[in-house]
Amino acid sequence: MGVRIEKVELPGIGTRHDVLTESGRRVGVVAHRNGDRDLAFFDIDDPDAAGDSVALTDDEAAALANVLGASVLLGQLTGIREQATGLYTEQIVLPADSPYAGGVLGDTKARTRTHTSIVAIVRGAEVIPSPTPADSLEPGDTLVAVGTRHGLDALAELLTSGRR
């Protein structure tokens, strides 16, 4: 089943986008003309009556989007692993003494050297999905990678010692 999203114009206020859940609940994001935004939870019987709402700062909205995006991404990767025999996902923490800490992803040449793909970098509450070779690597970053068991082992060795 596809996700149903409804857009509601709020004259003088802004726009509301509602996500209708399978359970019949309605969760909305109100984007005010002045840039403010609220997360709203609506009464199941009255789609115009908000039971509760939460005002979000820019940082809070970005953090919420990152958390939701990361959980979806990791869930999709888990689904791939279940469907593809011999393909695995793994989260590898970049050690502080890694030769790549402080550099950029492209320096690792991980895909060429290990035949794995780094599909996300998780840095604290921030998620960088589909990182580019120019994305920075910092000590403690969690790299989400997809590959064979052999390739992921090689990636872990590469990130730890710089050798493959």
Structure explained in plain terms:
With 164 residues, the protein is of the alpha+beta class. It has 2 domains: 53 residues; 86 residues, Alpha-Beta Plaits, CATH 3.30.70. The chain contains 3 helices and 9 strands; from the N terminus they run E-E-E-E-E-H-E-H-E-E-E-H. Strands 1-2-3-4-5 form a 5-stranded antiparallel beta sheet. The longest helix has 26 residues. The N and C termini lie far apart (44 Å). The mean pLDDT is 83.
Q: Tally the structural domains.
A: 2
- DSSP helix fraction: 25-40%
Helices and strands, in order, run as: EEEEEHEHEEEH
Number of strands: 9
Radius of gyration: 20 Å
- Beta-strand portion reads 25-35%
CATH topology of the largest domain: Alpha-Beta Plaits
Averaging pLDDT over every residue, what do you get? 83
Note poorly predicted spans. Answer: none
According to CATH, the homologous superfamily of the largest domain is Regulator of K+ conductance, C-terminal domain
Main beta sheet: strand number and arrangement? 5 strands, antiparallel
At CATH's second level, what is the architecture of the largest domain? 2-Layer Sandwich
Largest sheet, order of strands side by side?
Answer: 1-2-3-4-5
Helix-strand category: alpha+beta
Distance between the termini: 44 Å
Helix segment count? 3
